[in-house]
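Discussion board: Methods & Data

I've been asked by a reviewer to show the raw model output for two of the constructs in my manuscript, not just the figures. I'm not sure how much to include, so I'm pasting the format here to get opinions. Each protein appears as its amino acid sequence followed by a line of C-alpha cells. Is this the kind of thing reviewers expect to see in a supplement, or should I convert it first? Here is construct A:
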Amino acid sequence: MAEARASGQAQQSYGQLTMEKTYFMDVDEPMENKEIQKAASAAFTYLVLHPDDKIMSANLKHYAALEGVDITEVVNFEAKDYVYLYIHGADAYEKKDWNGVVQNMEESLASYLQAEDDCRALCEGPFDQGWYPDFIPSIANHFTYCLKCKQRCASQLNSLNGEKHEDLLPSHYHYLQYAYFKLGNLKDAGAAVASYLLFYPDDDTMLENKDYYGRLPKANVDLFTPRPEAVHYIQRLMYERRILKYIAREFKFEDPSKEKPSEVVNRYSLILINLNVGKLPSRICTVMQWQH
C-alpha cells in the first residue's frame, strides 16, 4: 500500500511562523472520509509554503487518489481570510454576479490591509544587535531593519495558496471598478479606477476605462478621486522607499577591520533626514551611522 511520509522539513520554521501544528497522518491506520479530506488539506497547507517538497507532493497525490477525497474541497488551513474572499470574488466575476464581486472584494481588501498592518507590527519587535552593541549604530541598524522588514510584508502576502500575484492589492480595485460600473454605481467605479492608477499610472486598460467613464453623462470633476486607504498606502510606501534610498545613498557600512586608523574619526553623528512626501510629516529624526 502506498504510504504518505512526513517531510524532513516538518520541524523547520517557515515564513514568520513555526510549524506548531502536526500536518502529517499515518495512512496505514483506518481513517474516516472526513479525516482523509483533512489529511489532503494538511498536505496542501504545507505545500503552499514549501512548493518544492517532493515527499509532500507525493503525499497529496496519494490522498487525492483515495476514495472519499474531493479535491475541490482541499483547503489551506493557514490561509488568511482575504485569500478565499478574493477567490470567491473572482469566481463571482466569472459568473457576472456583480453584487458578489463587490461584497467579497471589499471584504478581501479590508482583510488584506489588516493582514499587512499585522505583518508590519511584527517588524517592530526586539532586534538582536549581535556583535555590534554600540548604542548609536544599534538604533540606526534597528530602524533600518524594521523599515526593510515592513517593505517585505507585501511580498509575503501576495500569494493565493502558493501562487504569487505581485498585483494582488491593486487588482482588488480592478475588479471593483467594473463591478460597480455594472451595478450603475459610477461614483465608486471612478474611485476604484483612480485608486488602481495610483499603483499603475500607465496602465492602458484602466486609462481607457477612465476616459470612457469620464465621458458618461453622470460624470463630474470629482469622479476620479482615489479612495483614502489607497492614498494612505501609496504615500506610506513612497515615504519609506525614499528613506531607504537615502540610507543606501548616504551611508556606507564597511568592515571596520579594513579601515585605516586615520579613517576611524567622528564616525557617529546625529542626522536629520528631510523628506517631503505629500501630506506626510516633512521631517523625521533618527540616528544613523556616518562613514567619513
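Construct B, same format:
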Amino acid sequence: MDKLVKVTCPQCSHVMEQRSSKVRKNTTCICPKCGHFFLPEEG
C-alpha cells in the first residue's frame, strides 16, 4: 500500500501530498498552485 509523502514545490513552496511510489520513481510533479513542473528530488 502506498503511503502519502509531502513534497514541496521549489518555485512557490506549496506543500502537497504525493504517493510514495511516484516519488521513488522520480516522476515529474506538477504544482497545483503555480503549475510548475519539477522532480520530487528538487522539492
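Answer (T.O., handling editor elsewhere):
This is acceptable in a supplement if you add a one-line summary per construct. For B, something like: DSSP finds one helix and four strands in the chain.
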